[in-house]
Design brief:
Two copies of one chain form a homodimer. Chain A has eight helices and no strands. Chain A has two domains: about 45 residues, Orthogonal Bundle (Arc Repressor Mutant, subunit A); about 140 residues, Tetracycline Repressor, domain 2, CATH 1.10.357.10. By secondary structure, chain A is mainly alpha-helical. At the A-B interface, helix 7 and helix 8 of A face helix 7 and helix 8 of B. The structure holds a DNA duplex. Chains A, B: GO terms for molecular function: DNA binding. Chains A, B: This is HTH tetR-type domain-containing protein.
Chain lengths: ~190, ~190
Amino acid sequence: MKQTTKKEKFFEESLKLIHEKGFKAVTMRDIAQRLDFEPANIYNYIDSKQALLELYLFDISYEFHDSLNNILKSSYSPEEKLKLIISTHIQLTAKKPYKMALLVNEWRNLKEPKLTEFTEGKKVYENKIRDVIAKGIEEGQFRSMDIEIATYSFLSSLRWIYDKYTGSESKINPFELEKQISDFIFTGMGK
Amino acid sequence: MKQTTKKEKFFEESLKLIHEKGFKAVTMRDIAQRLDFEPANIYNYIDSKQALLELYLFDISYEFHDSLNNILKSSYSPEEKLKLIISTHIQLTAKKPYKMALLVNEWRNLKEPKLTEFTEGKKVYENKIRDVIAKGIEEGQFRSMDIEIATYSFLSSLRWIYDKYTGSESKINPFELEKQISDFIFTGMGK
DNA sequence: GTCTATAATTCGATAGAC
DNA sequence: GTCTATCGAATTATAGAC
């Protein structure tokens, strides 16, 4: 059986609280209350509120960059690469939905220099996706379209997915979700 | 010529500031500084910081509901209705990008009872879109697919667009954007 | 309407005993 | 590691003179 230490519980519950109320809205007192101890105890686990946010964001951010880089290093075609990106994105989101939610909604609350570090990484990530799409259009695997808008559309199709794995509702099968999203991105809603 | 009163300037600059830094992060001092007067003066124009957020959100929210309802009352087919929704959504976003950004990112900062009022309206809006999609699948205009995921995908394809009209870059032609987004939603990226 | 001054509260973080 | 107590800073909002 998996042991849940008090420290693990702290990071787990803090993450959920930040997702629920937003980073700025959550107070150290909120966190302490949820864990049923005093605010001062929080500083046994983390140096500051900012450090907590940085920890969550750069952890999940690293995983996304890492998995993207592995896909890009392969010899798959652009279309196959995009499908792999969709697949790993959904798998990762299903595994860590709360961190993914923070990645989407809370990165603005980082402070310099971490904020710049993060946004630079974000740009790099998006440009890599953009390059795959551009290559796919060039090679005739995708239809001709505005590359920038295609990139935004592609990314926005994946960005909301955490919502299916936070809430208390029954979680959708990631493989079924992958099929649905993949079909939407490649063939759209029309017949 | 259009007259810009100090009051108009206040609402305009406050809106941009809230978009840039986030509602919780913006202080009354920030707003006063941007407008080059003292924090106390803000209360000549608005009762509280919360009231400011409510004003922006319910203003743009009403416009979206109103235009959606007009489209739904028409005798157009589901596919034509979705195209009109895309069209009016982009037009409205191009006209009021900063309020649209708040609609997407800041509604969580509403307090009860306004928060519930807002989220109920959001649900109603999304369910109406969902019904159009369901009808379109039923009538065979759209391919068979998971209705809930289709609805999320459709909405997420429109949600990021404010980003093209805030920033300082050259604004994209709304009609061109409409064509690109519409093609993505109905035919996807594939050939 | 604009200012100075400040009330009232809240928050992140620390000190220090046990 | 957990507590009590509290500091120091920041914030919304108000009072009241001009």
